[in-house]
Amino acid sequence: MLLYLFYRPAATASCRLPRMWLLISFWSLLYLDTVWASVTVYSQLPLGQATATAAAANYTGAAAYDPTVLNPPPIPDPAPGTQPFIQLFNSNTSQGGLSIPISGSFYGFSIEMSVANQVLGVNSTFLQVPFLNIMAAFKQRGGSPRIRVGGNTQETAWMVDSIPGGKVLIKSKGNSSNPTQTPALMLSPELLYMMNNISNLVGVKWFLGIPMNDTQNVRLQIGELGESILGPNILGFQVGNEPDLYGRHGVGGRPASYSPEDYFNEFGVMMAAINNDTNMPTKNNIIGPSVSTSQWTMEDVFNTGYIPAYTHNLGAISVEKYPDDNCLAVFGGAGQPKVPQTEFALYLDHTAGVNIVKPFLNASAIALANNKPFYMFETNTASCGGFPGISDSYGAGLWALDYGLQMAYSNFSTALLHVGGQNVYYNPFTPPPTNQTSFHQWTIGPILYSALIVSEALGPTDTAQVVDLNPNNANILTPGYAIYEQGTLARVALFNYVTDPTGAHAYTASLAVGGGSSGQPNGSPQTVKVKYFNATSVSQKFNITWAGQTFGNTFESDGRLQGDLDVKTVSCNNNICQIYMPAPSFALVFFTDTAYTEATPDNPQTFSTTAQTRVKNTATVDAAVLSTSNGHSGSQGRNILGSTSLEHNKATSTYVPSTAALVALAFCAILIGHHNYLE
Ligand SMILES: *[C@@H]1O[C@H](CO)[C@@H](O)[C@H](O)[C@H]1NC(C)=O
Ligand SMILES: *[C@@H]1O[C@H](CO)[C@@H](O)[C@H](O)[C@H]1NC(C)=O
Ligand SMILES: *[C@@H]1O[C@H](CO)[C@@H](O)[C@H](O)[C@H]1NC(C)=O
Ligand SMILES: *[C@@H]1O[C@H](CO)[C@@H](O)[C@H](O)[C@H]1NC(C)=O
Ligand SMILES: *[C@@H]1O[C@H](CO)[C@@H](O)[C@H](O)[C@H]1NC(C)=O
């Protein structure tokens, strides 16, 4: 989505701002005062205390750290029932209506190609430790994390042998006399070596973008080198990003009339080039069409004969979708910018996820019928950076959980949450601005928790099947899902979207397994384990916890979950397990020991960093040591580097390096000091 911002200005009448302004707005500050004017803000005050409109209104820093806190939507009348009964079945066949098997790596991340050097690392020997820690957490829950490096910036990317200073990429400024020209992105093979080193450490598997701006002069070097350097760590190559916007944005000089048929033909040129390229031996891992669906539907593309024509190349069918946009607030133009307070409620019930997915149910079924997985290749709360107070709130965390499980239920096989730069509100994780890397750490967004929780909900077996339970008389504020693994009930996910600090709108769900009205044998376990995703209000931005643990607040995270694991054990009586759901809350209920243990790392693998040299702005390599993290402890360590001699002293937070740690030390380092990137 990143370069949407660059393309948009000249392409649409509503965006008439000079490029310089855009660069400023994009890479440094956003001034959105008009948006705030009518917004009442709780500025970091607990719910119910005096509101303040001034603080956030005067905020002029980068979007990623915007302090705006909105009001939770009012409690609806009638309110949802507080005693829902949910009948469940032990086996997937009795339950019925389930999805295809889904991987625990379902939720991954989409990293704009041009910001890979901020998020992943500086070069193949200087990786971002917080990023490694985050990925390790995913690997230990759902399996190998899936990351796409691509986006609009892939279209003008070109590979060179090397870049001075050993850099992985640079953006050239482009032609300043032409404000719509996307700055070309120069990549070096070092980017791919860096990605491969990340894979070796934390098992990340990659989707890589191949440029399609110019089918007269096809550039496949990214694919060729990608295959030779990354080998099996490549999941697929995306050819063409949002081609339905090629005409509107003039990508590669294409005319406004650019049609699905034009795309079909050009995609054919790309496939022929790949099929003839002996340096790209894998032919069947191409991802397309990746339309944004703002101009064409998936069916418009399918109607060209796309799938049968390219079935030997297509590894998956992809779409990219943001449910809303904040473009007027960012770029100005005719009309009123959307008001975050008004938009907020649109994210805070079950229909949000259902309605994003609905237009793609047909496409998902068509993909499935053609034996192609269906991917949501780029998504987030809203395009043009998301909304202050929404995209970075606990409410967005609930939204991403519901939306993710809804996509899984609807037979999507992967969904990638987009990561932009400093000037978006929606990042799951944000490295500090480059001039602050010496004293600030990363900022974790609520949707990172959602992605992690979905990987726990689905587990590592690749057999998870998801069903939308529509409990509580299908009340849209209290949705729920059941997840089966190996054909057996493994977990239930419950939501309460209502915010009510009085407790009057908490509910208690009675989960019945087999027995009673099911006509099935009694199947309830004696006890279930419950993990909560917690905050006191949907608008809360700080102190969000998952099973008692947190990544920390703004600028606080080294990518590790901190604090002691807090898991509730609930006794079940007469085959009924009663789960208390505060307003608001999300709970994941584990029905078997396996369902719990496989999603709860005993001995988390983390790459720790030492902090003492951070105050100096020297780019010396800092120590990276492997350690266990706080919380859950046990004997069956599963850290992926295979160390068996890890110790962690909770009282003093001392981390003892192991042999594996010293290996890690050799090529991992915290990013400190100033480094230059992008403009
Ligand atoms: C990688 O980046 C670090 C930090 O900028 C630098 O010290 C190191 O020399 C670089 N390595 C190579 C091989 O360029
Ligand atoms: C990291 O990349 C460099 C090449 O730049 C390579 O020499 C080194 O062996 C790699 N490390 C791992 C663990 O793959
Ligand atoms: C495509 O991008 C490359 C690299 O930025 C550029 O050299 C080339 O001129 C572009 N082609 C078109 C048709 O715009
Ligand atoms: C998902 O696929 C399964 C298996 O083909 C099918 O039974 C189910 O109806 C599909 N789900 C949706 C929501 O279309
Ligand atoms: C987070 O929680 C801690 C401990 O309960 C409290 O001291 C702190 O003020 C909270 N921070 C915010 C921003 O709410």
From TrEMBL:
Biological source species: Piloderma croceum (strain F 1598)
Alphabetical list of SUPFAM superfamilies matching this protein: (Trans)glycosidases
Organism classification: Eukaryota, Fungi, Dikarya, Basidiomycota, Agaricomycotina
Alphabetized GO MF terms: hydrolase activity
Domain Beta-glucuronidase C-terminal: 480-588
Pfam families, per the entry: Glyco_hydro_79C
Record protein name field: Glycoside hydrolase family 79 protein
Superkingdom, natural source: Eukaryota
Keywords (A to Z) from UniProt: Hydrolase
Presence of the UniProt keyword Hydrolase in the record: yes
